[in-house]
Design goal:
The complex is a heterodimer of chains A (197) and B (538). By secondary structure, chain A is α/β, with parallel strands linked by helices. Chain A has 7 helices and 6 strands. Chain A has one domain: Rossmann fold, CATH 3.40.50. The radius of gyration of chain A is 16 Å and the shape is globular. Chain B has a domain at 50-226 and 237-265: Rho GTPase activation protein (Phosphatidylinositol 3-kinase, Chain A). In chain B, strand 1 and strand 2 (70-73) form a beta hairpin. Classes of the chains: A alpha/beta (197), B mainly alpha (538).
Chain lengths: 197, 538
């Protein structure tokens, strides 16, 4: 069954980005395999695929899990060009990851040459309440700042370990993308080109 | 229609008529930010620095004496010293430091102030990585890195890093690597090995370290494509694969750093052991490839065949060729090797599976003197010229190259390379070491299967400091393999549905890749009798 459906549905390319060691792979694996892996392998690049129903509509997700380390930033633009929706992950226990969120979102706008794009910001590792150093309000504030000009941006707190909001974050991202496509966002928000030349 | 774009523009931009004329970028900040990011991530040349360390040639940097090693760059010594007391920190070298703090630390280091006692270890690790990235020359020359990558591709199947150690001992010496580079490299690798020894607490084993540090150490993200294009063994790969390949090389470097110590006193170069010398002569006979080419090809084909029995790793993005499966593990080099060579080999395999002994007797029963004849009689399917070229390639590459572990044959065998007419071409059987290959075969398969399922980079010997006695197959691997296989079975039983992974990849990571019945891969598998109809595209 999944075969016939997956043929008819175009896959949605989701790119998971964020600083190193914030739990991008954990989140992705929890979503796609329903497992929390205790491995600690830094990712270079992995891809997963999963089909599911979101709002009674079939969706085939191609999820690209990327490297967070600075050394791999040269690969970033390449996959950003391919992505249709982005999941920006940071860890609520890690200030660096949070600081990076803003610049990553800016980079998405830049690479996509759009002012608005479906972006989900996920504050991961909220099971580690004791080590928490990024408040929910802080993250909300950041996202609200972006929402002023990008309505397709949202924030969710997740825990890959306890599977809290893991499905929700991916599903909401797909919803955002659908909304974006339905509004013709791709045409509307495209930066206007020089009219003189 | 009120677009968010309009709102923003009216708020922040100059008057409408000006904006219309000039079309100023609506957010000029982006540009700068991007530049900043580039300068951080790129290969150092773009970062100009007036300081003592960052971006300066190694020879010009102030040094410190390290007991037993000599002068190494002061920054390296200081960072390693500082980090030495924090080796148990989880994610050392993986977790990054806030940029603001990093900039400050760089300035401090560049001024020669050293590392403060209270500096967080992750900052120091990040600074060290940045320093490595920005060296005008990478610590390990790209050519050697490439050879190491080739060694890494075969390392798991063939030996316990003997090839890598041999390579390091042989190649990492003053003419190719400058003494200052060598000392720095050795100091760094010793330290990394120390970190890896504490992997139980910091969770950074040699592979993980290599993934994080490899790009800085071997400087390959940009150069890898060019390097792998130059390699006769490894096919051109996506940047991502090339990175994985060279990361494997970095892992070997960390594991076998003792081999670097063979040139302990860099000034006094002791004569190398005779077997190694012989190997060296053999190398010079054929062109530029590594001594590992023979085994690489053999292992790659064996691996390819055994892999294809179950599922094939392959990402959706790498479907240009059925061979170009990209993978996260450092064996990407071995997983997607030899696409072009294999294509030719398919022709040979189709002609009666007689090419297998040619590349090392994966099929010992078929090993007969007829093999050479068969190889000669192989119809060159794609076109005759290509087939001939391939045969020449096999002869020149495989004929005289044997694994460095068999010292008896290495001294006597002469390369029947076409480029060295002085030595008469000996029979190919001379170069196939069946005694080494056969007993290891089942273990290798087991290991490979396990690696395939686990998808990890753990095939090499686990303990970074072991002198070479590691079995290459740890209990942890098998446990992981079993666990993951269980998972897979569950998934399969669940029969898709909305919850199941749409693709059901190898182990936990790889989507299933169906192959077309007419593809080269299918033909190769069919000729090996390994093709099940479930794997074919409808």
């Amino acid at each position: 069954m999944s075969k016939s459906v997956s043929k008819s549905v175009k896959p949605i390319k989701i790119v998971v980005i964020g600083s190193g060691g914030v739990g991008k792979s954990a989140l992705t694996l929890q979503f796609s395999k329903s497992k929390f892996f205790l491995d600690y392998d830094p990712t270079i690049e992995d891809s997963f695929s999963k089909s599911c129903y979101i709002d009674n509509e079939m969706a085939r997700l191609d999820i690209l899990d990327t490297a967070g380390q600075e050394e791999f930033t040269s690969m970033r633009e390449q996959y950003m060009r391919l992505g249709q929706a982005f999941l920006v992950v940071f860890s609520v226990t890690d200030r660096k990851g949070f600081e990076e969120v803003d610049s990553l979102i800016q980079l998405i706008y830049r690479v996509k040459d759009r002012e608005a794009f479906p972006i989900m910001v996920a504050g991961n590792k909220i099971d580690l309440q004791n080590d928490r150093c990024i408040d929910q309000s802080l993250a909300q504030e950041l996202v609200q700042r972006h929402q002023e000009f990008n309505p397709y941006c949202a924030y969710i707190e997740t825990s890959a370990k306890t599977r809290l909001n893991v499905d929700l974050v991916f599903h909401d991202l797909v919803r955002l993308l659908r909304l974006y496509n339905a509004k013709g966002g791709s045409k509307q928000a495209k930066k206007s080109k020089c009219s003189l030349l | 229609m009120e677009s968010p774009l309009m709102k923003q523009k009216s708020a922040a931009q100059p008057p409408q008529f000006l904006a219309g004329l000039l079309r100023l970028p609506s957010r000029p900040k982006l540009n700068q930010q991007h530049q900043l990011q580039r300068s951080f991530c790129c290969h150092g040349n773009s970062v100009s620095s007036d300081g003592k360390f960052f971006g300066r040639p190694l020879e010009l940097q102030p040094t410190t004496e390290v007991p037993g090693l000599g002068a190494v760059p002061a920054i390296l010594a200081a960072c390693c010293d500082h980090l030495a007391s924090h080796v148990t920190d989880e994610g050392l070298f993986r977790v990054e430091a806030p940029r603001s703090r990093l900039v400050e630390l760089r300035r401090q280091l560049d001024a020669g102030a050293g590392v403060g006692e209270a500096t967080p270890p992750r900052d120091v690790a990040c600074a060290l990585k940045a320093w490595l990235r920005e060296l005008p020359e990478p610590l390990l020359p790209p050519a050697i890195a490439q050879e190491l990558a080739e060694a890494a591709a075969v390392g798991v199947a063939d030996d316990d890093g003997a090839r890598a150690r041999d390579l390091l001992r042989r190649r990492c010496r003053p003419p190719a690597v400058s003494p200052s580079q060598l000392r720095a490299l050795r100091h760094l690798c010793e330290f990394l090995a120390k970190v890896a020894r504490h992997s139980a607490s910091n969770r950074m084993d040699a592979d993980n370290l290599a993934t994080c540090l490899g790009p800085c150490l071997l400087r390959h993200v940009g150069a890898a494509a060019a390097a792998s294009a130059a390699s006769p063994l490894l096919p051109p790969a996506s940047p991502r694969d090339a990175v994985a390949r060279l990361n494997a090389a970095a892992a070997l470097l960390v594991r076998h750093h003792q081999a670097l110590g063979a040139i302990d006193s860099v000034t006094a170069v002791e004569p190398p052991p005779p077997a190694v010398e012989a190997g060296k002569r053999g190398r010079s006979g054929s062109c530029s490839g590594s001594g590992g080419s023979f085994a690489a090809l053999r292992a790659a084909v064996g691996r390819f065949a055994s892999r294809s029995r179950s599922r094939s790793p392959g990402s959706r993005r790498g479907q240009a060729s059925p061979f170009s499966a990209s993978s996260a593990s450092s064996t990407a080099a071995a997983r997607a090797p030899l696409a072009t060579s294999l294509r030719n080999l398919v022709a040979a395999a189709a002609a009666g599976r007689r090419a297998a002994p040619l590349i090392g007797g994966r099929r010992p029963s078929a090993q007969s003197p007829a093999a050479t004849v068969a190889a000669d009689a192989v119809p060159a399917e794609p076109d005759a010229a290509e087939g001939r070229r391939f045969r020449q390639f096999l002869l020149s590459r495989l004929g005289g190259q044997e694994p460095p572990k068999s010292p008896s044959s290495s001294s006597s065998a002469s390369p029947p390379s076409l480029t060295s007419p002085s030595s008469p071409p000996s029979s190919l059987e001379v170069s196939t070491p069946p005694s080494r290959c056969r007993p290891g075969d089942s273990r290798r398969r087991r290991l490979l299967r396990c690696r395939r399922v686990g998808g990890g980079r753990r095939g090499f010997d686990e303990s970074p400091s072991s002198g070479g006695g590691g079995s290459g197959f740890s209990p942890r691997d098998s446990l992981r393999a079993l666990r993951l296989r269980g998972v897979r079975r569950q998934n399969g039983g669940g029969s898709g549905g909305s919850g199941g992974s749409g693709s059901g990849g190898v182990g936990r990571r790889w989507p299933r890749l169906l192959i077309s019945p007419s593809s080269m891969k299918a033909r190769l598998l069919r000729s090996e009798g390994l093709l099940s109809s479930a794997r074919l595209k409808p």
